Amino acid sequence: MSRGTAGRPRVVRMSVELPLWRALTGYRILGLAYALGLFALNRHEYAHPLGAALYMGVLTVWTALTWNRVTSAERCTRPFLVTDLAVALTGILLTPLLDTAERIDAGAATLPSIWTCGPVLGLAIKGGWRWAAAGSTLVAVVNLVERGSPARDTVHNVVLVWVASIAIGYIVEVARASERTLARALQIEAATRERERLARDIHDGVLQVLAMVQRRGAQIGGEAAELGRMAGEQEIALRTLIAGGLVPPQRSAAQLAEDAALVRTVAAGTAPGPAPAPPAGPCDVRALLAPHASGRITVSAPGTPVLLEAAAAAELAAAVGAALDNVAKHAGEDAHAWILLEDEPDEVIVTVRDDGPGIPEGRLADAEREGRMGVALSIRGRLRDLGGTAELISVPGQGTEVELKVPRGSENEA
Fold first, then answer.
1. Matching PANTHER family, A to Z (predicted)?
2. How deeply is 270 buried, as exposed, middle or buried, from its count of CB atoms within 10 A (0-12, 13-18, 19+)?
3. C-beta atoms surrounding 38 within 10 Å
4. 289 burial via Cβ count (<10 Å: 0-12, 13-18, 19+)
5. Average per-residue pLDDT for the chain
6. Nearest CA to 327 among 384, 256, 249, 399?
7. What are φ and ψ of residue 244, in 5° steps?
8. Which of 30, 210, 274, 340 has the fewest C-beta atoms under 10 angstroms from its C-beta?
9. Does the pLDDT value for residue 245 go beyond 60?
10. Count of C-beta atoms within a 10 Å radius of residue 74
11. Residue 107's closest CA among 75, 163, 151, 158?
12. Strand pairing of 297-300 and 337-343?
């Protein structure tokens, strides 16, 4: 798996068969060279050397015309494999007609010699051990017919081809199953990351608005209180949906993202419309953090611009906003917060600290189990997608500190 241009996972399919097909191509060429050399050395000992030479010429032309057919599974079709095996079997059956009985009894090689293993290996790679067993069995039967009796050297060669081809076919089947499992795992990982990104958008938009409606409704009372109660129930249901990793089938990921962007727009008091795309090129992080400054929030930043790619800067600012939301929600309205921006050569560091009561030990794990994914998704998830880290340090009674680190890339330095 690698990263695309937009920073999202891109699944790269790997092929375990391609090296095998290349090796088979080389084997066919080397096997032909060996068979031709063997024939050239013993051509005068054949009973009909002209007929043997004619077959070797056909074998050479066939190999030259079809060498690229075994370079991939798509080109190596079943009819080709059957024809290729038939060429080898024909050469074995012609051997007793063209060679002398004395040479055959002495264990002389057949006309195609070791080239015969090429078609059998092609069947093993293409169809697995079952195809390999069928092809090697045919070769065994034809070799026994050519020899006339089950001689020891013939049986030895036949068993060797049979076992080797079936073993290779079985290994190919196992490799294909592993490749499918790996591809499925990469798809699941990519889907999980997309679901986490969507969950962050929902948390930053829909859940925040529902929580606000619930609080304001309870304060106003009357019919607004009932509206707030319903908003609270929907918030709980949506948090459960996010925690369970389920996406309703009637709404696609793109539609849910549009809903989240629309809610953020309405909550900000602006007119509905499509969310603007982040600008291309570097962006000054100071400009994104400056609007957080208020009587309760102090922002400290360098005097020079702190540049990051626009997408990374937006994610970092969103993580800071999520941390400040947690301060307002858990530390109280009177709590103070401090934002420190540091510009390092290799990374950008943002520290968010508050003087609230702190987080009890084990509370974050309980929150994740309850479906409250603010820290897990809106903060840690964002930084993980950027290749950075988010460290949370909290001591009961002494406040909480969140340190966000985003590494720089070569394009940011430029």
1. NITRATE/NITRITE SENSOR PROTEIN NARX-RELATED, OXYGEN SENSOR HISTIDINE KINASE NREB
2. exposed
3. 17
4. buried
5. 77
6. 399
7. -80, -5
8. 274
9. no
10. 8
11. 151
12. parallel
12: exposed, middle or buried (Cβ count in 10 Å: 0-12, 13-18, 19+): exposed
Q: What is the mean pLDDT of residues 381-407?
A: 85
Query: Averaged over 305-333, what is the pLDDT?
Result: 84
For residue 253, give the nearest of 195, 298, 299, 186 by alpha carbon.
195
379, 322 in Cβ contact below 8 A? yes
Residues 331-385: pLDDT tens digits? 777 788 899 999 988 999 999 998 888 776 655 555 555 544 445 556 887 888 8
Residue 326, burial from CB neighbour count under 10 angstroms (0-12, 13-18, 19+) = buried
Distance separating alpha carbons of residues 227 and 237, to the nearest angstrom: 15
And the tokens for 72?
Answer: 């991939």
119-166 per-position pLDDT tens digit = 998 998 888 889 988 988 898 888 888 877 777 777 777 788 888 888
Q: Quote the DSSP letter at residue 56.
A: H
Distance CA 371, CA 56 (A): 74
What is the per-residue pLDDT for 378? 67
Between residues 30 and 104, the one the model is more confident about: 30
Predicted confidence at residue 33, as pLDDT, reads 93
Report the distance separating Cα 73 and Cα 76, nearest Å.
Answer: 5
DSSP string over 101-143: HHHHHTTPPPSSGGGGHHHHHHHHHHH-HHHHHHHHHHHHHHH
Residues 6+ apart with CB under 8 A from 301: 285, 286, 289, 290, 340, 341
Degrees, nearest 5: CA angle 290-294-300: 45
Q: Give the residue ranges of DSSP H helices in 203-348.
A: 208-220, 223-243, 253-267, 285-289, 310-326
Distances (CA, A) of 155 to 103, 115, 147, 162: 17, 18, 10, 10
- Residue 390: what pLDDT? 87
**Quick check: 398 and 358 in contact, CB under 8 A?**
yes
The pLDDT confidence band at residue 271, using thresholds 50, 70 and 90, is: very low
Tokens of 262: 């629309």
Q: Residue 352 CB: number of other CB atoms within 10 A?
A: 26
